[in-house]
Design goal:
342 residues, alpha/beta, Rossmann fold, six-stranded parallel sheet
Length: 342
C-alpha cells in the first residue's frame, strides 16, 4: 500500500465524537504507518485529547465549505473519511479534489462521494435506530479495518488532574463516594429530568453515603439556571460547576475519579462510559438504541409514556410525561445498586 495522507472529519457533538472513538481506533490500527489528520471543532479536540489515533489536528475554522476546501486543498490528502454527516463536509472535500471520499450518502451529498454507505431505514423512510458506535464502525469496516472492539475510549492529561485538585480541593478529601449529576442536555429541554428530583436524589445519597455531589453543566444560561435550581432545592451544599468552572480536560479528570455519574442522555454520559465509570442514564424523548454501547456498568432508566420516544427537543404535551414517569425512588435504587457493588 502506498503512503496515504488521510483526512478524518469528525462529528461535532461531544457525545457523537466519543461514540466515534472505536472507529477512530480501528482506522489507526489499519493505517498504522500512514499520516492521519483529524479535522474538528476545538471542543471535540479537547474531549479527544490526548490520544494516539491521529498524527495531526486541524481546527475547523469555518462552516463555509468553500473556505474549508481551500484550506484542505493545499494539504494533498488522498483519503477523506467523513464521519461528519453534513452536506458541507462533502462539498468541501469534493472541491478540495481529494481522490477518495468515503461517507454516508445522505443529506443529498451522495453524488460527491466516491465510496458510499447507506444508513438503514425503516419501511416509512425514517432512519432505523442504530447505535452510533456501529454506525461509525461501518465506515471503518468498509475500509477493511478490524471492528471487533466497540468500546469507547478517552485518556486523561496528568496536568489536568493537578488543575482539578487546585480548583476543587474537597474532591481529594471526600469522605464518601463522588457522585456527578448531569442535569442538562444540548439537544433540548425535553431530555431533562426534573431539577427537584435531582436535588432529592442528591440529598438521599448524601444522607446515606456521605456522598460528595457535583452538579456538572455547560456554560449555557439555561443549564446554569438548572444548576442553580438543583443547588437551591437541596438540603445540603453541592458543588456547582456553573459557579466553579473547569476546563474540558479537568472535567474529564473529574469524571475519571467519580464513583457514580447520573446523567440525562447527553454528551458527558458518553465521557463517563468511555472512562469506565458507573453510570445511570435517564431517557425520555430519545430512543436508547441510538446511543447504545452495551456497557456493563450502566443502568438505563427509560421513561414510560405513550408518546415516547418522540425524538423532539421540546415537549409539546401539557405534561412532560416521559421524564415525569422517572421517580426519585427509581434513580436512588439504581444508585444504591451500583454503589454497593463498588
Amino acid at each position: 500500500m502506498q503512503d496515504e495522507n488521510i483526512l478524518v472529519w469528525l462529528p461535532s457533538p461531544i457525545g457523537d465524537a466519543v461514540l466515534c472513538t472505536p472507529a477512530l481506533r480501528a482506522i489507526r490500527q489499519h493505517f498504522k504507518s500512514h499520516k492521519i489528520s483529524f479535522l474538528a471543532k476545538p471542543v471535540v479536540r479537547q474531549v479527544l485529547s490526548p490520544g494516539s489515533f491521529n498524527d495531526v489536528w486541524l481546527e475547523q475554522q469555518s462552516d463555509n465549505p468553500f473556505v474549508t476546501a481551500k484550506n484542505l486543498g493545499v494539504r494533498k490528502f488522498t483519503y477523506a473519511i467523513l464521519f461528519k454527516n453534513s452536506l458541507g463536509s462533502a462539498i468541501a472535500t469534493f472541491l478540495a479534489k481529494i481522490p477518495m471520499r468515503i461517507g454516508y450518502a445522505r443529506e443529498g451529498r451522495g453524488v460527491m462521494l466516491t465510496d458510499k454507505l447507506y444508513p438503514p431505514k425503516l419501511p416509512n423512510g425514517k432512519f432505523k435506530p442504530v447505535s452510533m458506535i456501529d454506525y461509525y464502525l461501518a465506515i471503518a469496516s468498509w475500509l477493511g479495518c478490524d471492528t471487533t472492539n466497540r468500546n469507547p475510549e478517552l485518556l486523561i492529561e496528568p496536568e489536568n488532574k493537578q488543575g482539578l485538585q487546585a480548583k476543587l480541593p474537597e474532591i481529594t478529601n471526600a469522605d464518601g463516594p463522588i457522585v456527578i449529576i448531569v442535569p442538562g442536555g444540548a439537544f433540548g429541554p425535553s431530555k431533562c429530568w426534573l431539577s427537584e428530583r435531582f436535588a432529592q436524589t442528591a440529598d438521599r445519597l448524601i444522607s446515606k453515603y456521605s456522598a460528595t455531589i457535583v452538579v456538572s453543566v455547560s456554560p449555557s444560561p439555561a443549564e446554569k439556571q438548572i444548576a442553580r435550581q438543583i443547588c437551591g432545592s437541596s438540603k445540603h451544599k453541592l458543588i456547582n460547576l456553573a459557579e466553579r468552572p473547569v476546563s474540558i480536560g479537568e472535567l474529564k479528570s473529574l469524571f475519571s475519579i467519580a464513583d457514580l455519574v447520573i446523567s440525562n442522555d447527553t454528551g458527558p454520559r458518553h465521557i463517563a462510559i468511555a472512562l469506565q465509570r458507573k453510570v445511570i442514564s435517564l431517557f425520555g424523548p430519545n430512543n436508547p438504541a441510538w446511543t447504545n454501547t452495551g456497557y456493563k456498568d450502566e443502568i438505563q432508566i427509560i421513561g414510560d409514556a405513550p408518546c415516547a420516544p418522540c425524538g423532539k427537543p421540546v415537549c409539546k404535551k401539557a405534561e412532560h410525561l416521559c421524564m415525569q414517569s422517572i421517580t426519585v425512588e427509581m434513580v436512588y435504587n439504581a444508585a444504591e445498586k451500583l454503589l454497593e457493588n463498588n
